[in-house]
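INFO batch 0412 | record 1 of 1 | parsing
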Amino acid sequence: LLHDHTVIGVSWGTAVWEVVNAARGGGWTDVKIVQMIGSLGTTNPDIDGPELARRLARIFGGRYSMLPTPFFVDARQTRDALLGDPRIKRILAQYARIELALVGVGTIDPERSSILRAGYVTEQDLDELRALGAVGDVCGIHFDLGGACDFPVVDERRLGISVDELRAIPVKLGVAGGQYKAKAIVGAARAGLINWLVTDEVAALGALQLAA
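INFO prediction complete | emitting tokens
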């Protein structure tokens, strides 16, 4: 999927880290890596967006751009103020050039929710999302099993690539495995947030059963 001058967007998470960890340089020229979501500030910085962008750029001998914001903030007004900053706007403008997005597929299961562990949402937030029908997220964009992405309870506090910008990227490579990711995989595909998938047999069979 790579070629000279490829622009790659990267999200975060252990699955994406595994892909980056396994990647090898191939002699491409002027590969650019762009961080697509704000930083989570997790206790494990290796799986966070800035470090993944740096590592991938180093592997491919390319350049990278980081989004210098948190992943989620306290209120929509805070998000809007940050999005108006000229330095942040320059990073956001690069999203239109991304050709390949490397993303994880998140779940809203409280026992496995990464954004809950990072403290960006509460269990009450997840309860509300589930009550509204949400089954997972990609880049913090939540969706239901049918692919609808209308969950402002959390998403209006998110900093990163928009739904329309992500959908417009030609290759959206999702990486997710395990039976508990099956619903999220189906919802993400129907939402147009992934169109390529790296997964395991258990998740694939579960997703196929749900999709049928």
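INFO post-check: The first strand starts at residue 7 and ends at 10.
INFO record closed
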